Amino acid sequence: MNTAPATLGRTPASAARRPTARSLRRRRTLHWIAVHSIAIALAIMFVAPLVFIALTALMTDQQALTSELWPRSWNWGNFAEVFARSPLLLWIGNTMLYAGLGTAFMLLSSVPVAYALARFRFPGRRAAFLAVITMMMLPPQVVAVPVYLIWARAELTGTLWPLVLPMLLGDAFSVFLLRQFLLTIPREYTEAARVDGCSDLATLLRIVLPMARPAVAAVALFQFFYCWNDYYGPLLYASTNVDNWTLSIGLASFKALHSVQWNLTMAATLLVMAPVIIVFFLAQRVFIEGVTLTGVKG
Amino acid sequence: MSPTPAAPPARRRREGLRALVWLSPWLIGFAVFFLYPLAATVYFSFHRYDLFTLEFVGLDNYRYLLTDDRALTSIGNTLWLVVFMVPAQLLFALGVAWLVTRLKAGAGFFRTVFYLPSLIPTVAGTVAFVFLLNPATGPMNQFLELFGITGPDWFGDRDWSKPSLTLLGMWGTGNTMVIFLAALLDVPRHLYEAAALDGAGAWRRFRSVTLPTISPVLLFSAVTGVIYALQYFTQAMIAARVASGSTDSPGSSFTPGYPEMSTLTLPQWLFQMGFRDFSMGYACVLALLLFAASMLLTLVLLRRFRGLEEVS
């Protein structure tokens, strides 16, 4: 990894065509324009889907079936129509329950585990960490059959509890991420607390947690969004019971039930996206810092 | 574990006990949701099981896999995603991240715009893409029409369905992009300056300075990307469902893979076999296949981790 400077080419700069200051400045300007133009074009491509969704959501039924892109009339009532035609509030409630409880339970269980992995010295520490990574990398479908049978025996299939309750036993990805962050907190702080007679729990709550706030916030947001967006889990456990449908399940069925009404489908899609986008803009920094945190461990 | 200072045995035991208490929720979770189910999966794979009767069938389930056309198709499709979608996403993310580092004005704004789609709920994003790529009236083909190109049938054409999913994946690649961006910004400036002084061009600087420095991050993203591709489920399922216009009232059956099994991935076939047809024993064979593939990749990653473990 550190061999980069050694492998550098040693070919001398071609002194013959040394650029003048003016041509250099012109080249810089051209470069600036090129790079920013590409960025703008890309940005338009990234945003365009959202714009078309919004425009279609506001069209009439008939217009949404045509190839016209701009609404002839702005039908804000489409959003109300979505609420009227589907139990959207129920789906939102269920999704909130899944995401909210799932996140709370995950924090409750994962923070202490990550702290112990990062700070305690004990035999088997390495093995425990490897177990975390193994579970983090495990596709959920691998153990789906026996886990489903566990919940079937507990008569909890048809509800969202099989997705929420395991969060009380820690989430591998969150434990991993928190541990990586907690390792960066200098040992002196926790040692000093111990010398002062602080218990482990008090050290965690009073010293470590305040310092780990960005990581905890990031992990909580990731978990919340994961639950909010999850389709596989609710499909497996809750799709048989209409009362426990989440937004993902509901939206997936929406198009089928209102097959030719792209405008209503897009309105529903937009309603599902909106909270996520709003939260993102409120907590943008936490997101970007959190994602960066997941990448710096290579 | 070598740098542990020599501690008296009593204290070591106490520390071990303390760790055990703190880790107990996780250890229980590991046993109940990993060790036990994994053993049970192996056990069921030798049985026929439909929730009611359990019958030992030896290797029948494994033998059946070799004759199950749709399972083989699903494996092929999953491999397609690994070979084409993951590299496309990584290269695109790297390109976009590199572009953002070059921006003098509005880098923060562009980063936000490129990151945002990755947060869009998967189901919503997929439904939207099926609409955008709708061959007759969708904006995409109208856009192509401007250049005199007749757009393909996208999600309705078996040759284009996976590329369509790849486009969707590239749209939502913001996470990787942000990670790459951070890695690129971490490359020490003086290395570039030294390289430039040595007369290295842009491409040479990228190959000799940037690439070696960010390679651990690249590797991590590649491995997690592949593991993610092995689990690929929701987008394919939703795209097939919406594009085929199938009704999905509870009780009615929907077979994934539209069009012509081209979007059928291994996890979908596993789901179909295990939880729709209740051939749970056979589903466990498919699960073990998935397990083997993901563990292999995890090992690749762990080799990297070995050195990192004790950095603290």
From TrEMBL, chain A:
Is Membrane given among the entry's keywords? yes
Q: Give the bilayer topology.
A: Multi-pass membrane protein
CDD domains named in the record: TM_PBP2 (cd06261)
* Keyword presence, Cytoplasm: no
Domain of life where this protein originates: Bacteria
Q: What is its main location?
A: membrane
Residue span, ABC transmembrane type-1 domain? 92-283
Q: Which InterPro entries match?
A: MetI-like (IPR000515), MetI-like_sf (IPR035906)
Any single Gene Ontology cellular-component annotation: plasma membrane
What is its subcellular localisation? Cell membrane
Q: Where are the transmembrane segments?
A: 32-59, 96-117, 129-151, 163-182, 203-226, 262-283
Give the keywords, sorted: Cell membrane, Membrane, Transmembrane, Transmembrane helix, Transport
What Gene Ontology biological process does one annotation of this record name?
Answer: transmembrane transport
Family per similarity comment: Belongs to the binding-protein-dependent transport system permease family.
Which named protein is this? Sugar ABC transporter permease
Q: What is the species of this protein?
A: Planomonospora parontospora
TrEMBL record, chain B:
Q: Does the keyword Transmembrane apply?
A: yes
- Organism per entry: Planomonospora parontospora
Which SUPFAM superfamilies does the record associate with it? MetI-like
Family membership, please give it. Belongs to the binding-protein-dependent transport system permease family.
Q: Which GO terms describe its cellular component?
A: plasma membrane
Location relative to the cell: Cell membrane
Q: Which Pfam families match?
A: BPD_transp_1
Organism taxonomic ancestry:
Bacteria, Bacillati, Actinomycetota, Actinomycetes, Streptosporangiales
* Membrane topology listed for this record: Multi-pass membrane protein
State the UniProt keywords alphabetically. Answer: Cell membrane, Membrane, Transmembrane, Transmembrane helix, Transport
**What is the protein name given in its UniProt record?**
Sugar ABC transporter permease
Provide the ABC transmembrane type-1 domain boundaries: 75-301
Transmembrane feature ranges? 20-46, 79-101, 113-133, 168-188, 209-230, 280-302
Q: By its UniProt entry, which InterPro entries does this protein fall under?
A: ABC_transporter_permease (IPR051393), MetI-like (IPR000515), MetI-like_sf (IPR035906)
